[in-house]
Design brief:
Distance between the termini: 78 Å
Order of helices and strands: HEEEEEEEEEEEEEEEEEEEEEEEEEEEEE
CATH class: Mainly Beta
Largest sheet: 5 strands, antiparallel
CATH superfamily: Kelch-type beta propeller
Helix content: 10-25%
Structural class: mainly beta
Shape: globular
Number of strands: 29
CATH topology: Neuraminidase
Strand content: over 45%
Number of domains: 1
Oligomer: single chain
């Protein structure tokens, strides 16, 4: 019995000694850590606090950290009917108009103002979807598109916003064209349209064309470059004479490449590689960065937002849209990305008009 008590007492003393030694070690480590922190804080290296909005990107190249912008999103209203394959274009005053679309059962012939107000504008002489549209000199040009097959029509819309808008046929393309993208850009000091890729019911186009407007509103065409491969359903944005092409469908499947086209030289270079292949996404250019929204990834609409540094070619995640969205109309006005229509993750047509603001 005494032996048992003695052994128990010794065990308690041994545990007490071990606890004491452990406190000493922890205290020493804490002092060393504090001293180390003081040394770093007093060095000439500039450190900044990392907030919740900071991210680190890793796209296979060197990692870097950048403070990301804040986004705000708001539903502006609704299209007259839910539709995918809608085309959006903004005039020089920031007025945005949607053209055509496909409801899932029928094609649309309406042109609707969607920003800064939502109201009917004018009807086209025939329905269309997946057309390439853009403003030059106050006129809206509608290139190709179609219903069940690609169209070679060129339409021009006069007087949008005046209450007396009119749509006129303006000639024909050299071949039928749908699933191409047009964007207003500047080349040699002149404003015009850049037409990227597309499909003529047989061939995926590689061509990048410059469309300028001459006397009487006539369009003049000039080939300015070629993509590495045929491409349709790409997202396209422009900043001056630089045009950016994001994703799209190639003859062998979707691509995750981002290209930059220099309209002055016609040079096409690979800018970045996205973390996934995507088609039917939206893109806008903001102060040396691209905001890429939604799109079809492996055939399904996603909510993802990506932020691409056009100087570094680095790609970062920037949150998500309020809902999965692909094949929507899109355009950029100042620091806003405007989205209209599209399809959700079930492939159902949508009618919402969204504004995504970059702060």
């Amino acid at each position: 019995m005494n032996l048992s008590l003695c052994t128990s007492s010794e065990k308690r003393k041994s545990r007490a000694v071990r606890r004491y030694r452990w406190r000493v070690v922890c205290g020493a480590l804490a002092v060393c850590t504090w001293l180390s922190g003081c040394a770093v804080g007093s060095s000439t290296v500039n450190h900044r606090s990392v907030s919740a909005s900071d991210r680190t990107a890793d796209t296979g190249a060197a990692q870097y950290s950048e403070r990301l912008p804040k986004l705000s999103m708001e539903r502006l209203g609704m299209l007259p009917q839910a539709a995918m394959g809608v085309s959006l274009a903004a005039d020089a005053h920031g007025n945005v108009y949607s053209t055509g679309g496909f409801t899932g059962t029928a094609f649309c012939s309406t042109i609707t103002q969607v920003y800064p107000v939502v109201r009917p504008a004018v009807d086209m002489p025939q329905p269309t979807h997946d057309a390439a549209t853009g403003f030059v000199n106050g006129r809206l040009y509608i290139l190709g598109g179609g219903e069940n097959t690609s169209s070679d029509s060129v339409l021009v819309v006069y007087g949008l916003g005046s209450g007396t808008a009119a749509v006129n046929r303006f000639g024909r393309l050299a071949s039928p064209l749908s699933d191409a993208t047009a964007v207003t850009a500047t080349k040699d000091g002149q404003t015009g349209l850049v037409l990227v890729g597309g499909y003529d019911d047989h061939v995926y186009r590689r061509e990048v064309d410059w469309l300028s407007v001459g006397a009487g509103g006539a369009l003049h065409w000039q080939r300015v470059g070629e993509l590495p491969e045929g491409l349709r359903y790409a997202a396209v944005a422009a900043n001056g004479s630089d045009v950016y092409v994001v994703g799209g469908r190639t003859p062998v499947g979707d691509t995750n490449q981002v290209y930059r086209i220099d309209l002055g030289s016609g040079r096409v270079t690979r800018l970045a590689t996205l973390p996934y292949p995507v088609e039917k996404a939206a893109v806008a250019c903001f102060d040396g960065h691209l905001l890429i929204a939604g799109g079809l990834v492996h055939g399904q609409a996603v909510r993802r937002l990506l932020w691409v540094d056009v100087n570094r070619g680095q790609v970062q995640s920037l949150g998500a849209l309020p809902t999965p969205l692909a094949d929507m109309g899109y355009t950029c006005v100042q620091n806003h990305l405007i989205l209209a229509g599209g399809e959700d993750e079930r492939g159902a047509a949508q009618s919402s008009i969204w504004i995504v603001s970059v702060h």
